[in-house]
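User: Fold this one for me? It's Type I-E CRISPR-associated endoribonuclease Cas2.
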Amino acid sequence: MPFTVITLSKVPSSLRGDLTKWLQEVASGVYVGNLNTKVREKLWDRVKDNLKDGEATISYYYRNEIGYKFETINGDREVLDSEGLPLVLIKKEIKEKDKSLKEGFSKAAQFKKIKNIEHSKVKKSINKKDIKKYAVLDLETDGLNPVHDNIIEIGVVKVGEKQENFQRFIKIEGKLPEEIKKLTRIDDEMLEEKGIPLKRALEEFIDFIGDTRILGYNFAFDIKFLNSSLEKEGLAKINNKVYDIMQFVKKDNLFLNNYKLETVLKSYSIDEEVPHRALEDAILEEKLIHKVNKLWDIL
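Assistant: Here's what I get for Type I-E CRISPR-associated endoribonuclease Cas2.
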C-alpha cells in the first residue's frame, strides 16, 4: 500500500477521528500511514468536505517520473498537471494601492528608525564578546590511512574579530604518489623547499587555534589523521569542540546525489572549483558554513 502524508494547518474535530483511524499523527497536523487507493480517496474527500478554513495537503506514492503526486486545498499554491507531472504554481495576489495615501514613512517613523539604527551600532560596539569565533581546518595527505600515511599540508581559517589564515607544508620521507600530485598539484620539490618538520607544524597549528572551536568537511577523516600525527610526535590529542559540516549538510539538504564537497558547494550556489589544497579548501568550507541551516546558529 502506498505511503501517504496528509497535513492540515487546522484540524476540525469532525475530521480527527477519521484521520487517526487510518493514519498516525506524528506532529501537530501531520498524519502519515500506508493506505490503499480507495481508502485514500475516501479520506481525502472527507477532508475536502469538512475543511472550512485553513490549508490541507496530501502527498502519496504515484507511478510517474518523480514517484509521487500531491493535492492541496485552500493554499496559496495551485497544482498543475504538465504531461503527467505535478507542478506547483504560486499564486500572486496583486493589491491595489490607495493613491490618496502618500507612500513612505512619517517623520515620527523616520526618527524612530534612525534611533534604532544608532542603538544597533552602539549594541554592536559593546557586544564584541558576542562575535562568533571558530576555525575551519583542512588537511591534505599522501594517502587514506592515518597510521601509515602522512599529512603534507595544513590549512586553517580562523574567524573572530578579524580573519586569520594559517598554512604549512610538511616534509615527508619518500616520494608522493602520482595520483596525489595530480589531485593537489603538490610535488616533492615543493615539500622539500617549503616544508617543515611535522612536529613543528603541529605545534604552530596548536598555538594558532588555541581553544577555538574547529569545523571541517567530512571532518572525521581529518581528526583521525591529526590525532594520529599528534600521538606519533608525543603531543596531546585535540581536545577542542569539533563540528563536521557534512553532517549538518546531510540534514539540511537530504536529496543530493552525493555529498562530495564539489557537489555540496554548487547546491548552495558557491560556484567555485575545489582545488584540493588545504587553505583554499578551508576558505571554501568557511563560506559554506554561512549557508547551511542551523550550523551558523550553534557557533
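One thing worth pointing out: Residues 94-101 have pLDDT under 50 and may be disordered.
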